[in-house]
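Predict the holo structure. Ligand: protoporphyrin IX containing FE.
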Amino acid sequence: MRHHPVTMALHWLLALMILGALAVGLYMTGLPFSPTRLRLYNWHKWAGVTILALSALRLLWRLTHRPPAELPMAAWQRRAAHHVHAALYLVFFAVPLAGWAYSSAAGFPVVLFGVLPLPDLVTPDRVLSESLKPLHRWLAYALATLVVLHVAAALKHHFVDRDGLLLRMMPARRGGAPTVQPIHR
Ligand code: HEM
């Protein structure tokens, strides 16, 4: 059984947006002060706040919709997958919240898409901003590490176990087999 189309859409949209936010975040901080740097900072913040909102929607969806039955795999793999998924959900919230709080503490309120002023998460405070900045950075690195583990596991299932796990998160091809059956070895 494949995942629900809404689950797939949220999964791939968030995957793209998170990779984009990571790449822009790493790139923009090395730029000299310029209009480009300012623009990228804004895009990064808007993407991050959108990721936060979509993550809330995704968590709500996950809690109200049961995923398809799990494929057969070793107990340690199932446990590892559950831990990585739980940790991913945690950082989906922690990274953007830390970024938003850092921006507020540093005295730069977020104006979503340049039109919607968002409330400050904390009052401007230089000392606090100096600890929120590395917190946001290290949480983002933790998120990147979890994404690497998650992708490596998905690729192992696809190319080594060939159990169809990755295809469950892909739309069905027209005229193709309706469901991929697990291969038992
Ligand atoms: C999932 C969402 C997000 C990801 C993956 C992410 C990732 C990153 C990364 C990798 C950096 C570079 C850190 C470094 O090497 O110093 C960064 C910097 C930054 N992020 Fe985010 N971020 C996210 C959301 C947000 C949000 C929602 C905001 C604010 C509303 C924000 C504000 C900032 C700011 C201001 C910096 C620059 C810090 C500095 O000047 O050193 N981020 N982010």
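The two ends are 20 Å apart (CA to CA). The chain has one domain: 5-69+76-171.
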